Amino acid sequence: MKFSVLVNEGPFTHQASDSAYHFVKAAIGKGHEVMRVFFYHDGVNNGAKLSSPQQDDRNIVKLWSQLGKEHGLDLVICVAAALRRGIKDDVLAEGFRISGLGQLIEAGMETDRLVVFGD
Amino acid sequence: MAEPVDIPEDDEPGEDVKKFMFVNRRAPYGTIYALEGLEMVLITGAFDQDVSVVFMDDGVFQIVKGQDTKAVNMKNFSPTYRALEGYDIDKLYVERESIEARGLTAEDFVVPVKVLSAAELAGLMAEQHVIISA
Fold first, then answer.
1. Going by fewer Cβ within 10 Å, which terminus of chain A is more open, N or C?
2. Could you say which architecture CATH assigns to the domain B17-133?
3. Where do the structural domains in chain B lie, given as residue ranges?
4. Chain A contacts of B133, Cβ < 8 Å?
5. CA B18 remoteness from chain centre
6. In angstroms, what separates the C-alpha of B32 from chain A's closest C-alpha?
7. A108 and B18: CB-CB below 8 Å?
8. Does the interface ipTM go beyond 0.90?
């Protein structure tokens, strides 16, 4: 099946990003395709490379970057939501790109399921 | 005699049209979900999809008439919902249980809405291809 994923919450405050990460990893592991992961609302903070959690905790931003690199994932940060929250290309973690909301709608149009993670 | 012309698939009406539903469940102010949710709906309007917008729980307050946000120093974005019609987004629904619990009626909103019960909305949701809730 062809999936796309929407992440609506930032890292650490909320489990949404962790759950989305595990979902994407599991889906790819089962042989499904993940066309795009779109980050909206506070979810844009998942692509901020300045995030430095404590050593004994998971580094969510890095985990996404690594997963993106391994599987050539399209990790898209919403530009309008990002600019509001101080996320620009200069603080963008590896493997993420900034683009418009149209990328989310396109993902919904072109995949079998759009799975939303948030409240 | 002219050669028969192949009509490209994407010229056929109805091709690539999916049913998108946006479910607004939160109050307009206090969190950003309502405002950014509306931004999503407006963008979808540019993609010629079959769009429905649902207001339920405190989300019904997003479209209530007579909002005055001066005291909280936030922009009153409720007039923007009236722009949806210009994007051919006119399937606007409110959940009956939510408005009854809050003492509202179908006349209290800035846009024309259809009032549906939770059970009717569930049926509508089951028909959608994409549901985005905020």
1. N
2. 3-Layer(aba) Sandwich (3.40)
3. 17-133
4. 116, 118
5. 15
6. 8
7. yes
8. yes
Collapsing DSSP states into helix, strand and coil, what is residue A104?
helix
Check: CB of residue A40 under 8 Å from CB of residue A68.
no
Coil, helix or strand at residue B104? coil
Count CB neighbours of B38 within 10 A: 23
The domain spans of chain A are: 2-117
Query: Do B43 and A108 lie within an 8 Å CB cutoff?
Result: no
Encode chain A (119 residues) as per-residue pLDDT tens digits.
Answer: 999 999 999 999 999 999 999 999 999 999 999 999 999 999 999 999 999 999 999 999 999 999 999 999 999 999 999 999 999 999 999 999 999 999 999 999 999 999 999 98
A47 closest CA partner among A3, A79, A71: A79
Give the rounded distance of the alpha carbon of A108 from its chain centre: 15
Instruction: Domain A2-117: state its class.
Output: alpha beta
